[in-house]
Amino acid sequence: MSVLPEDTAVIAQRLHLATGFHANERDWVVDRLAALGARLRSFRDDQVELEISLKDRRGVEQRVTLECWINRTPRLHLVATSTEHDLPAALNEVRNELIRQVDEAKTRTEPRHNRALRSVPDLPELGRPPASPN
Questions:
Q1: Model pTM?
Q2: Residue of higher predicted confidence among 121 and 6
Q3: Would you call 100 helix, strand, or coil by DSSP?
Q4: pLDDT tens for each residue of 73-129
Q5: φ/ψ of residue 73, rounded to 5
Q6: pLDDT over threshold 60, residue 21
Q7: How far apart are CA 50 and CA 67, in angstroms?
Q8: Is 113 helix (H, G, I), strand (E, B) or coil?
Q9: Residue 57, CB half-sphere, CA atoms under 13 Å: how many?
Q10: Alpha-carbon span 63 to 68, nearest angstrom
């Protein structure tokens, strides 16, 4: 997975570090999440918000949560979590899960742009047998 400088910039502009991360870790976290930037570039800057938090750092119940809000109709709220004890592995896990969720959300809305997929066949009226295909 190659990461372009634009991908890193997309994440840097939209990411908010929440509980558990220190300000001096921001560049490292942005670099870890940069692969997500390619998926988010298709949205305008004002449409996407990202927030990452870390609870119980180095504890038994360490949890990394990456949240993404995409402001479009309907508004999407995507959440990826990891309980990995290794912080770099946890960041990779939440990044990959959020990439999967963004891809899934994009494909869910694609058929509306294709007239053939939008058209719905006529249903037979109730009480009448369906017409024969001859």
A1: 0.75
A2: 6
A3: helix
A4: 778 899 999 999 999 999 999 999 999 999 988 877 655 555 565 555 666 666 666
A5: -100, 115
A6: yes
A7: 6
A8: helix
A9: 9
A10: 16
Q: How far apart are the first and last CA of the chain?
A: 53
Distance CA 91, CA 97 (A): 10
Pull the structure tokens for residue 34. 């940069």
Alpha-carbon separation of residue 79 from 29, 96, 97, 121 (angstroms)? 17, 12, 9, 37
Cα–Cα–Cα angle for 98, 104, 106, nearest 5°? 105
If one counts every other C-beta atom within 10 angstroms of the C-beta of residue 82, the result is 22
* Strand-by-strand arrangement of the 63-70 sheet: 15-17, 48-55, 63-70, 76-82
